[in-house]
Amino acid sequence: MNSLSNFFYPKSICIPGASTKEKSIGYELLKTIKVYGYTGKVFPVNPKADEILGYKCFHTIEEINEPIELAIVIVPKQFAEPTIDSLLNKNVKSVILITAGFKEIGKEGEQLEKNIIDKVKQAGARLVGPNCMGIINTLNNIKLNATFVAEQPECGAIGFLSQ
Questions:
Q1: Residue 128 belongs to what domain range?
Q2: What is the torsional sign of CA 74, 75, 78, 79?
Q3: Domain holding 8: CATH number?
Q4: What pTM was estimated for this model as a whole?
Q5: Is 162 part of any domain?
Q6: What is the pLDDT of residues 97-121, one digit of tens each?
Q7: CA distance 99 to 111
Q8: 110 and 102 in contact (C-beta within 8 Å)?
């Protein structure tokens, strides 16, 4: 479980693509993290915002001067690869890529997805996605809903991961 620990038990989360726009995925995901009561550090990244939902917002990933255990990427497809590059340069080892528009749309998207996967593997990091819902950990001491789905399942004895 060690290589997956930062996905389910992160002490800090970076969210490139966090948004001030209600109903957007970047806003709703940050809102579910806050509302469900995640207690770790949260670093929203948006070049045009100083604060989102009470969290200090960073204009670039490079501005974050603390360790990042998990990154949840929600940027438009054309910014996904440079965003992943910035995260890997900061030694982030666990990345969730919510962004869609990769191999499911054809050859161009397939090549972009391959480039990202190759870079993540080369860096010794792990990737969930692209085009995924995120991750939920219902354990009371974690309280992590890193999805854009407002419904929270009850805590139970079953783990489920799907891509």
A1: 2-147
A2: negative
A3: 3.40.50.720
A4: 0.91
A5: no
A6: 999 999 899 899 899 999 999 999 9
A7: 15
A8: yes
